[in-house]
Each structure stands twice: as structure tokens, then as C-alpha cells.
Amino acid sequence: MIGIVDCNNFYASCERVFNPALRNKPVVVLSNNDGCIIARSNEAKAMGLKMGEPFYKVKDLLEKNGVAVFSSNYNLYGDMSRRVMMLLNEMTPGINQYSIDECFVDLSGIHNLTEFGKNIVKTIGKGTDIPVTMGIAPTHTLAKAASIFGKKYKGYDGVCIIDTEEKRVKALKLLEIGKVWGIGRRNAEKLRYYGINTAYDLTQKTEAWIRRVLTVTGVRTWKELNGTDCIDVTEMPRKQSICTSRSFPDSGLSDIETLEEAVVNFGVACSRKLRMQQSVCRAITVFAYTSRFRQDMPSHTINRTVHLCVPTNDICEISKITRTALRQEYKEGYLYKKAGVIVWNISGKNIQTDLFDPIDRKKQERLNKAIDEINRRNGYNTIKVAAQGTNKAWHLKCEHKTRQYTTNINEVIDVRV
pTM for the complete prediction? Predict the structure, then answer.
């Protein structure tokens, strides 16, 4: 059997951990630059608030109904995720983290699955104050379905198990096709066109039909829904490109120093993500452009790609390349509204490199490892490249951001007695 532990309304739940007054009250978390809603508590969902709803459209409604609004605090969310995963790792034979708030669990040798699942839910709730739901089933896709029902129906007490043919069929008949893991919005629309509205409808099609309409990926999903486990989360492909970008406040940025600082920070973030997935890139693209909606201002677009002789994930090398690429195409007199860095042509670390490479890659790797470890222990950007600077002009609009309670010693929670 396979289990998945899923944190409920994760971002909103993280905000509640350090503010108990928010319990049982509607909470929403906003995207970068306070653009739109990306997380909602159950109370906020009950109000009809939708994912992706622009903040400016519902701002008056939120204020009228006393909804607590927060800007994204990714340092806090990342650290709370780490704590949840550490507890899981201590209680289970093996885990495979799938996303910041989801983790597949190996249940080999576990006999009383209900008791085991409830113990996990209780322990994580007590240890982190993050509510979680556990779905258990013979396949990864069915386990995801079980977690959906575990969240929806309180009678499960946070643990839903699909362990019989009767339960499997009942669950599939109740599961809307758009909520099946691996289907996606476009495929869901295509399947509805063919009269497939539930997961059960999908399982009634032949393998040949599934292969023709949904290709080999759809066949895996079809087999999983029928009870055959054929997905290995550990072998899921790495990202083939990584992008870090941001829209700037107000009208945008014009001076090269501030824009350069922002772009270097984006490059550093990309290099960190490369190292996290144990990969390197062979190409880097730097882009920036003026507002597409301001007809009263001159427009300009920067788009510079650098192809590398030797693939890299080094923080210093990538920051230098991004800075140079930006300077080569930057023009004065323009207000750049958005900029970003894309690293692509990604591969694993163990590949053939240039025999005449002048850089000591082993030394480079040791340095990056030391920087990552220090930043992991002491907070993101405790150690950084000098070109990242300290200018706040390009930073995100975060008018509702809470403290970094667990990663910044200057922002720990205050206790008054």
C-alpha cells in the first residue's frame, strides 16, 4: 500500500500557526506582488473565494467580511514544510517528497493502516500545528484520490483508505475527472467532450483508446486507477528549464544598477534550484521588458541568451553571466516593468566537460555546498554574492507579510507575560 500525506490549505495553515486568533476565521494568502489569491482556509472557501482571484477585485469584500489577508512568506512556508517532512521521516520506513506540502509514504510492513495513519496525522498536528490528511491506497493515483475524500469528509478523521474493490469503484464514481492526478485542465476538457465526467468513466475505456487520446502518460493514469501501480515518483523527470522572474512595483526600474541587482538575484535563485535537483544548465537567458499596457511610454525588450561550453550550477558563475548579458542589451531611458532569468538545456551533473576548462569545478562545488549549508541553517541569503546588493527598490510588494518566525532570529515570536 502507498500513502500520501497532504498538508491542508498549507500556506494559510502556516500563517495560523503563529497567530492562534486566526483559527476558525477566514484566511487568504496572496501571490507575488500581492496579485491574486493562491491559498484559502476552509472558511474562505465557504465564502466563495476562488483560487487565482485578483486581489483588487475582492479587496472590499475581504475587508467587509473580516478576512485575514497575508502576502506570501516563502521562507516561513519552506521551513514549516521541512519540519513536517522531518517528522514524517522519523515515523515511516521511507518518504518521497512530491511538493512543498505533499509527500508519498512507503507503507511496507505496516499492518494496522488506520491506526498508523491517525498516529501520523496526530503527531504532525501536535508537532507543527499544521493539519494534514493521509490518503492510503494500492497506487499513487488512488492514494491522491483518497486524500481528496479525506479532506472533504470529516468522518474520516484525516485518514481515508481505499483497500477494497468496492471502495475503489465507489471513489472513482465520485471523483470528478478534472481532479484526477495527472489529467490536467486541457485533458479534462477533452475527456468531457467524449462524455467522460468521472474517474470511473475513464476506467471503462480500453487501453488502446486511452493511448490514442491521452498518449502513454494517460495509460499510466488509467492503469493506476484500475489498481496497477506503475508510477515511480523518484524517477519523475527533472525540470528541463527553470525560470525566476518578477514584476517591479510602480512604473518599473530605469537605472542599470538596480535592474542588474534584481537580475543577479534571479540568477542566484535559479542556480540554487539547479543544485537542489542535482543538475546543471548549458544555457542562460536574461530578459526584461517595459510595460505592455503603457502606450504613453517608449517600449523596449531585452532578451539575451548565453550558451555555455561547460554546464554549470555555480552561484558565482551564473551571477556573472546574467550581469554581463543584461549590460550588453540594456538601454537608458526606459522603465523596465518585468525581468527574469531562465536556465535551460538542463542535464545531470555527471557529464563530459571541456578538457581545457580553466575553472576548478571541484573547488567550485565545495564552495557552493558550504554556502547552501550555511544558508539552510541561518536563513536564505545569509551568505550571498556581493552583486546581489541590498537595494529594496525592486523587491516584491508585500504589504501584508508576516514575520519569518522560524528562520530569522530578529523576527522570532514575541511572548508577553
Answer: 0.76
